[in-house]
Amino acid sequence: MDKKSMRQEKLKFLKETAKYKQEVLLMRKLFQLDAWHKASSIGITLSMTHEINTYEIIKFALVQGKSVYVPHCDYHQKTMDFVKFSSIDELQEDEKGILMVTGARDINNEMDLLIVPGVVFDLKGYRIGYGGGYYDRFLADYKGTAVSLALEGQLAEIAPESFDEPVHQIITEQRILTGVRL
Protein backbone atom coordinates (compact mmCIF):
# COMPACT_ATOMS: atom_id res chain seq x y z
CA MET A 1 0.00 0.00 0.00
CA ASP A 2 1.37 3.46 -0.85
CA LYS A 3 1.79 6.31 1.67
CA LYS A 4 -1.27 8.20 0.52
CA SER A 5 -3.54 5.15 0.89
CA MET A 6 -2.05 4.27 4.30
CA ARG A 7 -2.52 7.86 5.45
CA GLN A 8 -6.18 7.86 4.37
CA GLU A 9 -6.84 4.49 6.02
CA LYS A 10 -5.26 5.48 9.35
CA LEU A 11 -6.90 8.93 9.36
CA LYS A 12 -10.26 7.19 8.96
CA PHE A 13 -9.31 4.89 11.88
CA LEU A 14 -8.34 7.87 14.07
CA LYS A 15 -11.53 9.77 13.28
CA GLU A 16 -13.70 6.74 14.10
CA THR A 17 -11.90 5.65 17.28
CA ALA A 18 -12.80 6.79 20.79
CA LYS A 19 -9.37 7.46 22.26
CA TYR A 20 -9.76 8.76 25.81
CA LYS A 21 -8.72 5.58 27.68
CA GLN A 22 -5.77 4.99 25.35
CA GLU A 23 -4.68 8.64 25.68
CA VAL A 24 -4.55 8.30 29.46
CA LEU A 25 -2.32 5.21 29.10
CA LEU A 26 -0.09 6.99 26.59
CA MET A 27 0.31 10.01 28.88
CA ARG A 28 1.19 7.82 31.87
CA LYS A 29 3.88 6.04 29.86
CA LEU A 30 5.24 9.34 28.53
CA PHE A 31 5.42 10.86 32.01
CA GLN A 32 7.42 7.84 33.23
CA LEU A 33 10.15 8.18 30.60
CA ASP A 34 13.58 9.36 31.71
CA ALA A 35 13.51 11.71 28.72
CA TRP A 36 10.39 13.38 30.19
CA HIS A 37 11.91 13.74 33.66
CA LYS A 38 15.20 15.15 32.31
CA ALA A 39 13.58 17.57 29.85
CA SER A 40 13.30 21.21 30.81
CA SER A 41 11.93 22.10 27.35
CA ILE A 42 9.34 20.18 25.34
CA GLY A 43 8.29 20.56 21.70
CA ILE A 44 4.75 19.37 20.99
CA THR A 45 1.96 19.98 18.52
CA LEU A 46 -1.42 21.44 19.33
CA SER A 47 -3.54 18.42 18.44
CA MET A 48 -6.50 18.42 16.11
CA THR A 49 -9.70 16.66 17.22
CA HIS A 50 -8.91 13.35 15.48
CA GLU A 51 -5.34 13.17 16.81
CA ILE A 52 -3.98 11.98 20.16
CA ASN A 53 -4.90 14.81 22.55
CA THR A 54 -1.84 16.85 23.51
CA TYR A 55 -3.51 19.55 25.62
CA GLU A 56 -3.33 17.59 28.89
CA ILE A 57 0.34 16.89 28.21
CA ILE A 58 0.96 20.59 27.67
CA LYS A 59 -0.88 21.50 30.88
CA PHE A 60 1.11 18.93 32.88
CA ALA A 61 4.41 20.14 31.40
CA LEU A 62 3.60 23.74 32.35
CA VAL A 63 2.58 22.69 35.89
CA GLN A 64 5.94 20.92 36.19
CA GLY A 65 7.73 24.12 35.18
CA LYS A 66 8.84 22.88 31.77
CA SER A 67 9.04 25.28 28.85
CA VAL A 68 6.64 24.27 26.09
CA TYR A 69 7.21 25.03 22.43
CA VAL A 70 4.75 24.44 19.60
CA PRO A 71 5.33 24.41 15.84
CA HIS A 72 4.96 27.45 13.66
CA CYS A 73 5.08 26.63 9.94
CA ASP A 74 5.96 28.96 7.11
CA TYR A 75 4.06 27.26 4.30
CA HIS A 76 5.74 29.36 1.61
CA GLN A 77 9.31 28.60 2.75
CA LYS A 78 8.32 25.05 3.85
CA THR A 79 10.04 25.59 7.20
CA MET A 80 9.00 24.92 10.78
CA ASP A 81 10.22 26.55 13.98
CA PHE A 82 9.09 25.95 17.54
CA VAL A 83 7.74 28.96 19.45
CA LYS A 84 7.09 29.30 23.15
CA PHE A 85 3.58 28.48 24.34
CA SER A 86 2.25 30.12 27.49
CA SER A 87 -1.53 30.23 27.23
CA ILE A 88 -4.41 28.99 25.14
CA ASP A 89 -5.41 32.66 24.85
CA GLU A 90 -2.49 33.35 22.50
CA LEU A 91 -3.68 30.89 19.84
CA GLN A 92 -5.39 31.44 16.51
CA GLU A 93 -5.85 29.37 13.37
CA ASP A 94 -3.32 29.71 10.58
CA GLU A 95 -4.14 29.65 6.87
CA LYS A 96 -4.63 25.84 6.97
CA GLY A 97 -6.86 25.90 10.05
CA ILE A 98 -4.10 24.70 12.40
CA LEU A 99 -3.72 26.46 15.75
CA MET A 100 -0.59 28.56 16.18
CA VAL A 101 0.85 31.04 18.69
CA THR A 102 0.22 34.68 17.80
CA GLY A 103 2.25 37.75 18.68
CA ALA A 104 5.91 37.81 19.67
CA ARG A 105 7.72 34.57 19.01
CA ASP A 106 10.37 33.16 21.32
CA ILE A 107 11.89 30.46 19.06
CA ASN A 108 13.67 27.37 20.38
CA ASN A 109 14.50 24.57 17.95
CA GLU A 110 16.71 22.75 20.44
CA MET A 111 14.15 21.43 22.93
CA ASP A 112 15.23 18.53 25.11
CA LEU A 113 12.22 16.41 24.13
CA LEU A 114 10.18 16.56 20.95
CA ILE A 115 6.83 14.77 20.76
CA VAL A 116 6.40 14.10 17.05
CA PRO A 117 2.93 13.63 15.56
CA GLY A 118 2.06 11.19 12.83
CA VAL A 119 -0.69 9.22 11.19
CA VAL A 120 1.08 5.90 10.52
CA PHE A 121 4.06 4.42 12.40
CA ASP A 122 6.27 1.37 12.01
CA LEU A 123 8.23 -0.72 14.48
CA LYS A 124 11.54 0.99 13.63
CA GLY A 125 10.47 4.54 14.45
CA TYR A 126 9.50 5.72 10.97
CA ARG A 127 6.27 7.59 10.49
CA ILE A 128 3.95 8.99 7.89
CA GLY A 129 2.55 12.42 8.64
CA TYR A 130 0.35 14.62 6.53
CA GLY A 131 2.71 14.77 3.56
CA GLY A 132 4.38 18.16 3.98
CA GLY A 133 7.74 16.81 5.17
CA TYR A 134 8.05 19.45 7.91
CA TYR A 135 8.97 17.00 10.67
CA ASP A 136 11.38 14.96 8.51
CA ARG A 137 13.26 18.16 7.61
CA PHE A 138 13.24 19.27 11.24
CA LEU A 139 14.36 15.88 12.60
CA ALA A 140 17.30 15.75 10.17
CA ASP A 141 19.13 18.31 12.38
CA TYR A 142 17.40 17.76 15.72
CA LYS A 143 19.76 16.64 18.52
CA GLY A 144 17.30 15.95 21.37
CA THR A 145 15.05 12.97 22.05
CA ALA A 146 12.17 12.43 19.62
CA VAL A 147 9.15 10.42 20.79
CA SER A 148 5.78 9.72 19.18
CA LEU A 149 2.47 8.71 20.75
CA ALA A 150 0.35 6.30 18.72
CA LEU A 151 -2.46 3.82 19.00
CA GLU A 152 -1.65 0.21 18.15
CA GLY A 153 -4.07 0.59 15.23
CA GLN A 154 -1.76 3.20 13.68
CA LEU A 155 1.08 0.72 13.30
CA ALA A 156 1.85 -0.64 9.83
CA GLU A 157 4.80 -1.67 7.72
CA ILE A 158 6.36 1.37 6.08
CA ALA A 159 9.00 1.40 3.36
CA PRO A 160 10.99 4.48 4.42
CA GLU A 161 12.34 6.79 1.76
CA SER A 162 15.80 8.42 1.86
CA PHE A 163 14.44 11.65 3.37
CA ASP A 164 12.37 9.95 6.11
CA GLU A 165 13.67 10.46 9.66
CA PRO A 166 12.74 8.04 12.47
CA VAL A 167 11.96 8.93 16.08
CA HIS A 168 13.73 7.37 19.06
CA GLN A 169 10.63 5.81 20.57
CA ILE A 170 6.99 5.21 19.79
CA ILE A 171 4.70 4.84 22.77
CA THR A 172 1.51 2.86 22.24
CA GLU A 173 -1.06 1.79 24.79
CA GLN A 174 0.54 -1.69 24.82
CA ARG A 175 4.29 -1.08 24.44
CA ILE A 176 7.20 1.27 23.92
CA LEU A 177 9.01 0.69 20.63
CA THR A 178 12.60 1.83 20.27
CA GLY A 179 13.44 3.21 16.84
CA VAL A 180 16.65 3.25 14.88
CA ARG A 181 17.44 6.92 15.47
CA LEU A 182 20.56 7.00 17.65
From TrEMBL:
Record's keyword annotation contains ATP-binding: yes
Keyword ATP-binding: yes
Keywords: ATP-binding, Ligase, Magnesium, Metal-binding, Nucleotide-binding
GO molecular function per UniProt: 5-formyltetrahydrofolate cyclo-ligase activity; ATP binding; metal ion binding
UniProt protein name: 5-formyltetrahydrofolate cyclo-ligase
InterPro entries documented for this protein: FTHF_cligase (IPR002698), FTHF_cligase-like_sf (IPR024185), NagB/RpiA_transferase-like (IPR037171)
Pfam families: 5-FTHF_cyc-lig
Cofactor dependency: Mg(2+)
Binding site for ATP: 3-7, 127-135
Swiss-Prot/TrEMBL GO biological process terms: folic acid-containing compound biosynthetic process; tetrahydrofolate interconversion
Family: Belongs to the 5-formyltetrahydrofolate cyclo-ligase family.
Gene3D superfamilies: NagB/RpiA/CoA transferase-like
NCBIfam families in UniProt: MTHFS_bact
Domain of life the protein comes from: Bacteria
Residues where substrate binds: 46, 51
